[in-house]
Each structure stands twice: as C-alpha cells, then as structure tokens.
Amino acid sequence: MGIAGFNIKCQWVRELGAHACVSNYNSPTFEADLVAATPDEVGLYFDNVGGYVLDVVLTRVKRNGKLANWFALVSGRFATQGFIMLNYIATVPEILGELITALADGRIVLGEGEAIVEAKIELQPEVWMRLFSGADTGKLITRLIR
C-alpha cells in the first residue's frame, strides 16, 4: 500500500506492485481513506515524509509493527521502539529494590511534581501559557478564585 499526493503518483505506486494507494494526503478525508485502505492495520511502514502523514499512519500501525524513516533515523542509525511496563512486569521486584536504594542514597530525587496556581478566571490564559515557557515542572493545576 502506498500514500501519494496525487492520483498520477498513486497510479505509479500501483504499477510498482502496491495493492492499494491512498491519494492526496491533503484531502479532508485522508484519515478515513487510510483507515479504509488498511483494515488489518499496518505491519511495516517506510516513512519519507514525516509530519502529519506519519502522525496519521502511526494510528494505524499494529502492535510490534516496524517503521523505517529515511531522515534523521537513517543518518544517525537510530532505532526506535515502543515501551510499555507490562513487558517488564517480571522484573518489578528487582527494579523496585534498585529504585528504593537509589532514592535512599540520593541518586534519585523526587520533586513535588505539580504547581498549584490560584488565579481569577480572567487570568487563566496567562497562567496556562506557563505550560509553554518551562516555568513549571510536572503538572500545572489552576485553582479558580473570586
């Protein structure tokens, strides 16, 4: 299956042997078109575009699917892999012991993790802009006052 910006390119992709091609990733129906073309999800995806197209394709990749990227990943020889704690559940007792020791000897320092800001409703946009300035670490909680 391929993705292209124009019908003529999709025709070429099919001539190369693709069973399907989603045309015009600028179309308002692109996401629905991609879902229709990938009913069983995507097992392997070669990305040469990035951005919006990659974001949409990522919603269609099956568990343990493979992605290749031509840009920074190739030149840097990077590998990416999803992470979920359930894959490591058998090692929790060992890791928990290491984390407790690291916390006790100061190698890990826990911060408060949240900032509570009291402000009137009129000031909420200004408070929320702190999320984009690096002014807070952790969660930003706003408490409305009169």
TrEMBL record:
Domain of life: Eukaryota
InterPro entries xrefs: MDR_fam (IPR045010), NAD(P)-bd_dom_sf (IPR036291)
GO molecular function: oxidoreductase activity, acting on the CH-CH group of donors, NAD or NADP as acceptor
The protein, known as: Alcohol dehydrogenase-like C-terminal domain-containing protein
Organism: Diplocarpon coronariae
